[in-house]
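Protocol step 4 of 6: structure prediction from sequence.
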Amino acid sequence: MKRHLSFVVVAGWGLLNVALLAILAVYGESSLVFWLWGGAVALLGLAALLVLASSRTGPDEHVRYRVPQRGAGAVLPAALGCAFIALCFVYGRWLLAIAVPLLALAGGMALRGTAPRER
């Protein structure tokens, strides 16, 4: 199943939504909610099948990706840190305990670089 890991991710996301739909059924939601959420679950199932078909016809998945710029790996932690700072305005300053280390990690990665050095 290592070759079709992307299918497992999309199918797992669909199964999680099926579980959430079942929870809504327990709480007695309206039929419109079931139609809308059920349509989203059906689309996720279709997407999972398309991903499975694509991964079967294509080459094996890449294990390692080359980053074009040495500091480009810092983008994800920086974006998450900024998102947590934005969420501080809604949920409180305790999220700074998560945001500040992420931004420090991003700064370190940007200065040091994350890609292997060229020979």
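Step 5 (inspection) to follow. Residues 31-57 form the longest helix (27 residues).
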